[in-house]
Amino acid sequence: MIAPVTIRSWRRAACRIAAVGALCVTTLGATAKADDLETSAEKDLGRLIVPLLTRANGIDDDPLLAGWVQGIGANVATQSPRRDLLPRFVIVGSDVANALTLPGGTVMVTRGLLDSVQSDDELASVLAHETAHVARKHAVRQFEGNLIFAALDLALKQNGYARAANATSVYNIFRTLNKSREQEAQADDLGIQYAYASGYDPNGLAHFIRGFDSGRSSPLMRYLATHPAPADRIEKIEHSPLVRRETPELRTPLVKGLEERGLPGLAEMAQRGEDPLAFPARRAVAIDPSLTTDRALIGEQSDKGRKDLMATYRVSAISDPLQQILLINNNIGDLRWAYLAARAYSIQNRADDLYARTLRVLRFAPATYDALAAYVGRPTSQTVLLDSQQGREELQQAVRQARAATGPLRRGADAVIVALVDLNNHYLRPRGNSEPWLRYSALEGTLRYAESELSRADKYSGQAWRLLAVAQIRNYQARLTDLVPDSDEARRALWRRQAERRFGGTVGEVTGLPTGDATVRAALAVELAKTPAESESGRGATAWADWALQQKGTPENIATAMRILSLDLEREIAAEDRYGIGREQSH
Fold first, then answer.
1. Contacts of 135 (CB under 8 A, 6+ apart)
2. Among 356, 350, 359, which Cα is nearest to 454's?
3. Which residue, among 288, 334, 493, has the nearest Cα to 427 in the 3D structure?
4. C-alpha span between 373 and 396 (Å, rounded)
5. Could you say which of 195, 334, 496, 545 is the most buried, measured as most Cβ atoms within 10 Å of its Cβ?
6. How would you write 370-437 as a 3-class SS string?
7. Which of 215, 406, 416, 408 is nearest to 306 (CA)?
């Protein structure tokens, strides 16, 4: 079971500012209004907030993925009725699948989210949802409300009305959560319209949400959730007329969009009222008997690692609502509390990142092993067999490293939750004596211990993730070559169209290479801002996945780009074969 993952938007970003609330009150006091912020003030607020949120994880400006996100984002943003402020899309280097919208129009998508989407349509639906937040100024509205309640809380405490301040804080917690769910539902409705009008399938949002196994949650957890329940969201999305597309007229925008993306087979599916995002069934391939023992071992070790992570998941299920309550129910009049709250929030986010990354390795390693093992015993090139062997060894190492991360990750997460519980209990403590300061000193030590343990987990998890990514490049390289053989001119032409759409003109400079090799070469050239010839200079007999590392490429991003390309090709080839179309396009 994996942790519930939602498209958490602006409210967590706005609430985080409460942890440094004194700064915000001072900076924005002259411009904040109870009912609205002018666009110029909203932009100023965004310039204040964005650096605070990107400091820990940084912005991933790799052109391989940034161009993909910004291109799709620009398409859906044209549908926003708000012309004074259009969204700006950036990638944050967090491993938790998340997207958030900030005042000023900055939409952040995490690196983990890009590893979770399965198509352009899923990404477009997520970005359309966030664009709706910008269009309706949800981030600013929520920030205004939290700022007003923070100022009221501070004023009441300073005037001796501690109980009234506590009641105000509790009210603001439930007001914020209720308002959040309302605005998320509104963003879903508008996002469907924006994605549909842009030529993408708005059902991508339902596919994206369904992709997560959110498990079962208690009534309290569901009530505290900032989004409507996933099942309720999916049901509502799938009942939208723009998703159901029961008439040919309603199918026209999507059909046109798929044709413009060079996917005539999927366009035909949409025209017939079928789901173009559905995956074709894959033929099961038996693993060579010589690999049975190793495959059983990697499956066993992955299962044990995931069981070890369950302790961290249970802690995270409590920590997430505590984070949200903490940053709404703030105590900004106490500067040391504000410092420790911001630090605890940041450390908990780091624990969430490490949990997501480690779980991803343990989930994907066995499936990647099976994919690589499928080439053993089949007629294929020696290069593919060598890459298969090397990739399987890397996956075994990746699982070992991921399992090594689970212990320190659990200890770090346990320490953080102790701090969060104590910080949330601040309003029950007696004031006017030394007890809060003694508690704060203990919390300082607790947070230092958590940071130390998470640093150890980060080392192991980072190595595991890198090994998995390199093995995935080897897999997608062989998969693309197998899917699009050089001898099939129609499929080769289809691959070239789709690769050029993702990697630009560099694909046209790649000649004489199998499809998989050419894809890695083109992706690496985009990453390094070099021509394909320059990116290959000096490679010799080095395998492409290893060469990407030597040239300081980012295997995780190359693997993601290759995965999306291969999924598009699989769906399109299955559709073209089904309807007998596309062959004439090779001439």
1. 80, 81, 82, 190
2. 350
3. 334
4. 13
5. 195
6. HHHHCCCCCCCCHHHHHHHHHHHHHHHHHHHHHHHHHHHHHHHHHHHHHHHHHHHCHHHCCCCCCHHH
7. 406
Residue 186 burial (CB count, 10 A): 14
Cα separation, 209 vs 213, in Å, equals 9
As given in the structure block, the two tokens for residue 264 are 């005539």
* Upper half-sphere CA count for residue 518 (Cβ side, 13 Å): 24
Residue 141, pLDDT score: 62
- pLDDT recorded at residue 153: 56
Residues of the chain with pLDDT under 50: 1-37, 148-149, 152, 156, 161, 164-165, 171-172, 174-175, 177-178, 213-224, 428, 430, 432-433, 585-587
Task: Please state, in angstroms and rounded to a whole number, the distance separating the CA atoms of residues 434 and 78.
Answer: 57
Q: Write phi, then psi, for 91 (nearest 5 degrees).
A: -105, 130
Q: What is the pLDDT of residue 511?
A: 74
Q: Which residue has the tokens 């999305």?
A: 237
The predicted pLDDT at position 226 comes to 54
Residue 26 is predicted with a pLDDT of 35
In which residue are the tokens 């949330």 written?
424
To which residue do tokens 């914020």 refer? 176
Task: Provide the 10 A C-beta neighbour count for residue 379.
Answer: 5
Structure tokens given for 4 = 């519930």
Helices (H), 329-381: 335-373
pLDDT of residue 182: 75
At 99 the three-state DSSP class reads strand
Cα 476 from Cα 548, distance rounded (Å): 14
Nearest to 13 by CA among 55, 43, 59, 52: 52
pLDDT score recorded for residue 103 = 80
What SS3 class is residue 90? strand
Burial class (CB in 10 A: 0-12, 13-18, 19+), 494: buried
Beta bridge partners of 88: 106
Domain ranges of the chain: 10-201+203-239, 247-276, 289-483, 489-586
| Cβ neighbours for 346, distance < 8 A, ≥ 6 positions apart | 56
What span, in angstroms and rounded, lies between the C-alpha atoms of 563 and 95?
Answer: 17
Looking at residue 215, its amino acid is: G
